[in-house]
Write a structure and sequence with these properties.
Layout lengths: L3 E4 L5 H10 L3 E5 L10 H7 L8 E6 L4 H11 L3 E4 L5 H11 L3 E7 L17 E6 L29 E3 L8 H8 L3 E4 L4 E3 L2 E2 L1 H19 L1
Parallel strand pairs: 1-2, 1-8, 2-3, 3-4, 4-5, 5-6, 6-7
Antiparallel strand pairs: 9-10
Helix pairs in contact: 1-6, 2-3, 5-6
C-alpha cells in the first residue's frame, strides 16, 4: 500500500527541499494567524513552486471566510484545501463547488466516541484527517505535538481515505503505522527544532524512520 506523507507548516526553502527530497506526497502551508507556522499566501505561492509535479500543495485554514480563501487560492494556487476549524459538511460542499478543489476536513479526536462526528462528512469531504484534540488552553487547533490513542481507529472502514496526525515523530511513527495502519500521515511539530522552525535534519530522520518501519512490517 502506498503511504501518503504530508509535511505541514512549511515556511522556508530549506524545509521545502528536505520534504521533497524525503519523498513527501503533500506539503502544507498554514494560513492561521495565531500559528507560529503562519505564512503569507504570496510567499506560500512562491514556495509551492518547488513542489510542482512532485507533491500536492495543501492550503490549511481555520474557519476562513471567502475573501481570505479567495486570496489564498489566487496567490498560492493550492492543489487541495484543508479545513481545520468547525466547518460543517455544508461548508465543505460549498467550498468544493466554489473553488473546484478537493477538500480535506480535520476532525479532532481523543476517544472512540469522537469518531461519531465522521459520518456526516463521508461522501462530501474528499479526505478526512484525524488529529488529537488540542491541550487545554491551546489557541492552536493542530500542531500541538500531542497524540491520541491510535487504537480507536482500528474499527474504521478499510475504504475510508484518511490522514493520521497529532504528535507523530521519528520515535513513534513505527508504533503509529503498526497500530493504526493509516493510508496517509501528517507531521508538523515533530520535525521542528522550535515552534514553527522546521529542521531539515529532523525531516530526513522522520522519512528514514518511516522507511525502516515499513521495511520491518514487510519482513
Amino acid at each position: 500500500m502506498t503511504l501518503d506523507i504530508k509535511i505541514c507548516g512549511l515556511k522556508t526553502d530549506a524545509a521545502m527541499a528536505a520534504a521533497l527530497a524525503g519523498g513527501a506526497s503533500h506539503v502544507g502551508f498554514i494560513f492561521f494567524a495565531k500559528s507560529p507556522r503562519y505564512v503569507d499566501p504570496a510567499e506560500a505561492g512562491r514556495l509551492r513552486e518547488a513542489a510542482t509535479g512532485k507533491a500536492k500543495a495543501v492550503a490549511v485554514t481555520v474557519d476562513a471566510n471567502d475573501a481570505f480563501l479567495d486570496e489564498i487560492v489566487a496567490k498560492m494556487r493550492p492543489d487541495m484545501l484543508q479545513l481545520h476549524g468547525a466547518e460543517t459538511p455544508a461548508r465543505v460542499a460549498e467550498l468544493k463547488a466554489r473553488y473546484r478543489l478537493p477538500v480535506m476536513k480535520v476532525l479532532s479526536v481523543s476517544e472512540a466516541a469522537d469518531l461519531d462526528r465522521l459520518k456526516p462528512y463521508i461522501g462530501i469531504a474528499d479526505r478526512i484527517m484525524f488529529d488529537a484534540k488540542p491541550p487545554k488552553g491551546s489557541q492552536l487547533p493542530g500542531g500541538n505535538g500531542v497524540a491520541f490513542d491510535w487504537h480507536i481507529l482500528a474499527g474504521l472502514d478499510a475504504s475510508l481515505d484518511y490522514m493520521l496526525s497529532g504528535g507523530l515523530n521519528a520515535a513513534n511513527i513505527g508504533d503509529a503505522l503498526r497500530l493504526a495502519n493509516p493510508p496517509a500521515i501528517d507531521i508538523s511539530s515533530g520535525v521542528e527544532s522550535a515552534p514553527g522552525v522546521k529542521d531539515p535534519v529532523l525531516i530526513e530522520q522522520f522519512f528514514r524512520a518511516v522507511r525502516a518501519a515499513r521495511d520491518d512490517r514487510a519482513a
